Amino acid sequence: MLNDVPKPVLIASALLGLEAAGLVALAVFLVVDTLTGDPGNTARALLSAVFALLGAAVLALGGRGLLRLRPAARTPVVILQLLAVPIAISLVQSSQKAYGAPILIAAIAVVYLLFTPPARAALDREDPPARG
Question: Which residues of 58-78 are buried (b: 16+ CB within 10 A; e: fewer)?
Answer without folding.
Answer: bbbebbebbbebeeebbeebb
